[in-house]
């Protein structure tokens, strides 16, 4: 009974491929694989190349704008958005202090202004006329009321400018912080020189020198 010629041809082909693979394995065992010419040149100079994988960090381009907007709407909210919770008390302390100083100086300015106006109008019933209560006045002269009025007004305006600056700084801080959070500031970032010594597994020869270690 004759065999199918196609089946016979397929059997011979499989046998030939099996023999070829076996010969290739034996040749690789007897003769080590050749190294790339560039790698050989670098190894001769004490330099090795290693493949490093880097996980790219996801960047949100709208994060800085959101943080700035939140801090503009409500101071400290942008810092909360950036998860910089320790900055929130600093923001409230700076802006709160500015508002307190402004309010205090504004109140004292109004007192001095009202007393100055009444004194100029001929009244002697303002709170600065007879401070000691001895009936002998005025205890504070008209010129002193004018100087106090100008000094409190100057301090009030300065406190207002500082408060506005703290408010703007709160917005800028949230925006810049959101930008910096998206940069790679990992602790693994490093550049260093170290002695290098390794044994080539193919040639069994030592490779030594100085290694420039760059981590990122």
Strand content: 5-15%
Describe the sheet with the most strands. Answer: 2 strands, antiparallel
Give the overall pLDDT as a whole number.
Answer: 75
Number of helices: 6
Distance between the termini: 72 Å
What order do the helices and strands follow?
A: HHHHHHEE
Give the helix level as a range of percent. Answer: 55-70%
Low-confidence stretches: 31-36
Question: How would the blueprint of this fold be written?
Answer:
Layout (H helix, E strand, L loop, with lengths): L4 H26 L6 H8 L18 H11 L3 H5 L6 H33 L21 H39 L9 E10 L6 E10 L1
Structure description:
The protein has 216 residues and is mainly α. The chain is 56% helix and 9% strand. The chain has 6 helices and 2 strands; from the N terminus they run ααααααββ. It has a two-stranded antiparallel sheet. A hairpin with a 6-residue loop joins β1 and β2. The longest helix has 39 residues. The chain is rod-shaped. About 3% of the residues have low confidence.
Keywords:
216 residues; mainly alpha; 6 helices; 2 strands; 56% helix; rod-shaped
What's a quick, concise take on this entry?
With 216 residues, this protein is mainly alpha-helical. It is built from 6 helices and 2 strands, in the order H-H-H-H-H-H-E-E. It is rod-shaped.
